[in-house]
């Protein structure tokens, strides 16, 4: 990377455990090709967290095309806005399955409406044509956030007692996984936070 | 001239740069939105509202070289308007897309939306206009992705949180909250106070936590 990251510690990205199944290539690409530290955990709200304030959701183009997804999508993004300062969605072109000829993407008015709504809501939109490109975009975002001093700096795998405390913080509404991790590491105890 | 300043757009209208008169985009927009042409819009192709404008990058622009990049940077430096960049992403210009995206979205912090031809561009502009109008009329409830400020009930959440303390289940969580009322007071409770509510072992566990 062009911007040197602290000695011996690479950039860190948190990935939701569901992404292990739905986008294994993104995760392995981040690790192998870009040398990022990827911590898989139960983020729940977002697919990825690339910094303390930026959540990234990976959406397939077909998901934005179908009106049936509308309420699910809006609930999900509203929840994200409750917990994060910045939100970015990566719109990934659907994979063409073997035996299928390249599907012709018919751009609908509905799809344009969804994009317009995202723009108006101040959600950043990136387009990707495959999982490798998505991984590269996540790396770019992590690098950018690192440059702005918002990178995830704390250890991401608390153990034992810290683990219990983390779970306690995670049960607080509108507190993101990253914010909970930071509370865990900046305060000695729950009592210190409460006071 | 490098004008990129604001311009007053009458409600429900779109102001287009004179150079687009007679183009396919303009023809398709006409009838769907009230389109007015004006000279001297400089860098901007279409103004959707007083705050939002569109810069259109054609396939030819992307292939021709870096001139369009200089135009975008000049716009970004000269204007505080929200600029939406619409780029023609075709089989030919596809290879440049990632680079353009990196510049526009990551470096300039603007919005970038790809279309495959001018027809798609006009369809997208029509949708963008309807959201801009909604924004001006303060009809923001129409946007499904804007956060609704709905206060969440705190009590179930507090109950959930207390159950994360080792040794505390639903029953003990309820008893503790009845006694102490808040997480703050629970945190500052002494072992003896805790023992009055739960047994000695659990009281110790909570205190240690």
From TrEMBL, chain B:
Keyword Cell inner membrane included in the entry's annotation: no
Domain Fanconi anemia core complex-associated protein 24 pseudonuclease: start-end pairs: 8-130
Keyword DNA repair: yes
Top-level taxon of the source organism: Eukaryota
Keyword vocabulary terms for this entry: DNA damage, DNA repair
Name used for this protein in its record: FAP24 protein
GO cellular component, one term: Fanconi anaemia nuclear complex
Domain annotation DisA/LigA helix-hairpin-helix motif: ranges: 165-209
Gene name as annotated: Faap24
One matching Pfam family: PND
Cross-referenced PANTHER family: FANCONI ANEMIA CORE COMPLEX-ASSOCIATED PROTEIN 24
GO terms, biological process: interstrand cross-link repair
Coiled coil: none
Species whose genome carries this gene: Pachycephala philippinensis
GO molecular function: chromatin binding
């Amino acid at each position: 990377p062009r911007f040197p990251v602290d000695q011996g510690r690479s950039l860190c990205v948190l990935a939701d455990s569901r992404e292990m199944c739905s986008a294994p290539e993104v995760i392995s690409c981040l690790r192998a090709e870009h040398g990022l530290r990827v911590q898989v955990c139960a983020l729940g709200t977002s697919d990825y967290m690339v910094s303390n304030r930026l959540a990234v959701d990976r959406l397939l183009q077909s998901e934005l095309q179908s009106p049936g997804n509308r309420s699910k999508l809006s609930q999900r993004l509203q929840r994200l806005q409750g917990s994060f300062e910045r939100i970015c969605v990566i719109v990934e072109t659907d994979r063409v399955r073997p035996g299928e000829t390249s599907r012709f993407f018919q751009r609908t008015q509905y799809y344009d409406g969804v994009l317009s709504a995202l723009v108006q809501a101040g959600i950043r939109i990136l387009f990707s044509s495959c999982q490798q490109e998505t991984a590269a975009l996540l790396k770019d975002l992590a690098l950018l956030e690192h440059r702005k001093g918002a990178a995830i700096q704390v250890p991401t795998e608390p153990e034992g007692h810290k683990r219990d405390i983390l779970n306690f913080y995670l049960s607080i509404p509108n507190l993101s996984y990253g914010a909970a991790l930071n509370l865990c590491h900046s305060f000695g105890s729950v009592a210190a936070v409460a006071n | 001239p490098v004008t990129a300043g604001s311009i007053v757009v009458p409600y429900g209208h779109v102001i287009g740069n004179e150079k687009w008169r007679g183009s396919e985009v303009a023809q398709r927009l006409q009838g769907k939105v009230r389109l007015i042409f004006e000279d001297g819009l400089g860098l901007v192709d279409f103004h959707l509202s007083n705050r939002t404008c569109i810069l259109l990058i054609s396939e030819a622009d992307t292939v021709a070289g870096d001139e369009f990049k200089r135009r975008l940077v000049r716009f970004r430096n000269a204007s505080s308007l929200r600029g939406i960049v619409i780029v023609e992403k075709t089989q030919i210009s596809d290879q440049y897309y990632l680079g353009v995206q990196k510049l526009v979205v990551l470096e300039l912090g603007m919005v970038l939306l790809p279309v495959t031809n001018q027809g798609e561009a006009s369809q997208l502009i029509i949708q963008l206009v309807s959201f801009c109008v909604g924004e001006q009329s303060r009809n923001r409830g129409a946007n499904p992705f804007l956060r609704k400020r709905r206060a969440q009930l705190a009590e179930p959440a507090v109950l959930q949180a207390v159950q994360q303390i080792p040794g505390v289940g639903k029953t003990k969580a309820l008893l503790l909250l009845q006694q102490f009322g808040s997480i703050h007071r629970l945190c500052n409770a002494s072992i003896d106070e805790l023992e009055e509510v739960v047994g000695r072992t659990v009281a110790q566990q909570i205190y240690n936590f």
